[in-house]
Design brief:
The relative contact order is 0.09. By secondary structure, the protein is mainly α. It folds into three domains: about 50 residues, Arc Repressor Mutant, subunit A; about 40 residues, no CATH class; about 60 residues, Arc Repressor Mutant, subunit A. Helices cover about 70% and strands about 0% of the residues.
C-alpha cells in the first residue's frame, strides 16, 4: 500500500503539502504539525497525516534529532546545552535528547568551533583574540571552563608555532 492510496481529497492535499515540506530537509513531528496548523488545516486531518507519515517512516523524531546534531557538529558547533535547547524547541522529547546527546563532547566541539574562526582573527593582538574567542564560544552556549580549555589548547598551538619559528632563524 502506497502513501497516497485511497485518501480523501482533503487528506491528499494536506499530505502533498507535508511531503513537500519534508522534501527540503528532515523535520520533527512538531515542525510538521506547526506548519500544517499555520496553513489552517483541520487538527484531525493533521493528526492523521502525521500518523501516516510516521507509519511510512517519513517522520521519525529520533532520526531527525541524530541528523540535526550531526549537522550542527559539522557546520555550526554549539554546546550540549544549546543543542538540547534547540531540540526541545523543535518538540523532541527529553528521552530522545538524552540519547542523541549522550556522547556529545563540549570540549571537542568548542575546539572545533574556535579552530574555524582563529584564522579570521590572526591580525589581532593576543588579548583581543582571546576576548573574541571567549565571546564567540560563550555565544554558542559553552561554559567558561570549556571556553578557557579551548583557548588554552590554541594558545599552546600558537606558542608551539612561535617557538618553531624561533628555531628556524
Amino acid at each position: 500500500m502506497g502513501l497516497f492510496d485511497s485518501l480523501h481529497p482533503d487528506m491528499e492535499k494536506t499530505l502533498h503539502l507535508a511531503v513537500r515540506y519534508l522534501g527540503y530537509r528532515p523535520r520533527s513531528e512538531q515542525e510538521v504539525n506547526d506548519y500544517l496548523k499555520k496553513k489552517q488545516y483541520d487538527k484531525k486531518i493533521i493528526s492523521k497525516i502525521i500518523a501516516l507519515l510516521k507509519r511510512h517512516d517519513y517522520l521519525n523524531d529520533e532520526t531527525f534529532a541524530r541528523l540535526f546534531v550531526e549537522s550542527r557538529k559539522r557546520r555550526n558547533p554549539k554546546s550540549k546545552f544549546a543543542l538540547g535547547y534547540e531540540l526541545k524547541q523543535k518538540g523532541i522529547s527529553s528521552d530522545i535528547r538524552e540519547t542523541v546527546l549522550k556522547d556529545y563532547k563540549d570540549n571537542h566541539m568548542a575546539i572545533k568551533a574556535l579552530g574555524s574562526k582563529l584564522g579570521q582573527w590572526q591580525h589581532l593582538d593576543l588579548e583581543k583574540k582571546k576576548k573574541k574567542a571567549l565571546n564567540y564560544l560563550r555565544y554558542r552556549g559553552f561554559g567558561y571552563d570549556v571556553c578557557m580549555a579551548a583557548w588554552q589548547h590554541f594558545l599552546g598551538d600558537m606558542e608551539g608555532i612561535g617557538s618553531q619559528n624561533d628555531h628556524t632563524k
